[in-house]
Amino acid sequence: MTFSIKLQVNEHKNGTLERKSEFEFEFAHTLISTRNQMDIPPSNDPKTPLLPLDDPNQRSQIKFPSSLKSILTSNNFNILLGPLLSTIICLHVNLDGSLTTSRNMLAVLAWIFAWWLTEAVPMQVVPMTIAAMSPLLLYPLFGIASADDVAHSYMNDVIALVLGSFILALAVEHYNIHKRLALNITLVFCGDPLNPPLLLLGICGTAAFVSMWMHNVATAVMMMPVATGILRRFPTGPNQSVVVGKFCRAVVLGVLYSITIGGMSTLTGTGVNLILVGMWQSYFPEAAPVTFSTWFLFAFPSALLMFLALWALLCCLYCSRSSGQALSVYFDKAHLKEELEMLGPMAYAEKMVLALFSMLIVLWMTRSITEDIPGWGVLFKGLAGDGTVSVMIATLLFIIPSKKQKGEKLMDWDKCKKLPWNIILLLGAGLAIADGVRSSGLADILSESLDFLEAVPYLAMTPAVCLISSTITELITSNNATATLIVPLLIQIAKTMHVHPLLLMIPGGIGAQFAFLLPTATPSNTVGFATGHIEIQDMIKIGLPLKIAGIAVLSLLMPTLGVYVFRTGEQVQ
After folding, report:
1. What is the per-residue pLDDT for 259?
2. CA distances to 1, 5, 10, 11 from 17, in Å
3. pLDDT tens digits, residue range 362-389?
4. Which residue has the higher pLDDT, 233 or 370?
5. Cα angle vertex 466, ends 465, 467, to 5°?
6. Which phi and psi angles does 176 have, rounded to 5°?
7. How far, in Å, are 80, 246, 517 from residue 66 at the CA level?
8. Residues 296 and 266 sit within 8 Å (Cβ to Cβ)
9. Is the Cα dihedral 365, 366, 371, 373 positive or negative?
10. Whose CA, among 83, 102, 320, 503, lies 20 to 30 Å from 283?
């Protein structure tokens, strides 16, 4: 800036004074504007400084925040709590002369779960995500595993399955396929005249079906606006009748719990299922894997019974058949058809995404069918997994053109910026913790302290495990963290009781998803509660009997259907 001013002066010798006075005016005007913004009163005295000077008297009146108070905050205490607990365990805990790696693994668990439970990371960052990456740091430092070994837990076939599924879910969301599906199914179930229980069945069934193939959180974010969009036809506030208010609560509660129930029925529906299967592969690599189709054969009937129980509860308490006349004033098939027409006919891109979605389901279900019918996986000598299929379909999304613009594909990386990396890292952390507990010898020590459970009958263990895991999720932590904590313990309990591990692992993993009572228990609960249509009393009224029904279903099916599907009569090494 100084150089350009000198050039102007040199080039205009005859107008130097004019240019100089102009510059001084601009400079003074800028400072006066600054004074006005700082609320400094103007002065006519030419000796008055343009900017305020430091006043020693005012300096003593300025209150600076105490540096001690800024350090001694609850958040900083939560951050220090993890290392503090870890240090105490390393210095004072002796696990009966066991290897130091077992004690160190216990210290690492205390550190990680302290950060998980207290969310000891600034709110600008997803707390669970940072804690989920801590095994990558702590395992090498505490001598539990090498950096390469722990990193393998964050990218294996299970993680590849999740990654490809999330990319496909983003494509479904981008092209509004979920909304089109919801409107079409709701039209079928609407009835003429309006049948509220049947309509509720269609809305909840759509949410459960979408949740089977997409993660619960993504389904809740997509389906809840669809449900509330249907409810916008009804009046709100004092003008809302009791019948309309009950139906609104029934729809939100139905969608909320249907998403959770639908997610139980497939491996990709929720992270807990993937954590459970990943731990099974880690602890028992020589055993028959739990494939997508194997899980579906057991979990789908369980989820179907729970879904019917949910629908019956909602119809009895909130949505009777007699309410159809009052609701038909605001709601009929014409409104649904209008919304469907606004979406227009299905474009080529939507059809291709739907075709790839269907192909993925078929390939998942047919990779390994039965012992007599091995499925297409035998063509690759068992080297291809469910994650292989998921990544292949995701890759095709980046290759197949969308035919909307020249050179545009169905998906590009800009559309993938919403990938939930926090969930992927959390799954990796769960698998890393399972590997660390096993390889460090901590699992063996825990099993030795559980000898008293040999006398407990299995029929009493199943409901107890479901109740404990669901309560932990309800009150303390997320269902993913609950599964990460409780499933390794259940494996050791099963060894102590001399029963097949899956007989306890599956009730514990699925039971961790029975968090139906509180809005903060799961992200899906939070999304539903945030609509403003339901209260905590409504969640307890439906959630408590639904939890009991879920525990009863698992207690009934696990010793019967589960024995057949998972072949729990065979010995596991």
Report:
1. 92
2. 19, 13, 12, 13
3. 887 787 766 566 788 888 887 888 789 8
4. 233
5. 90
6. 60, 30
7. 20, 53, 42
8. yes
9. positive
10. 83
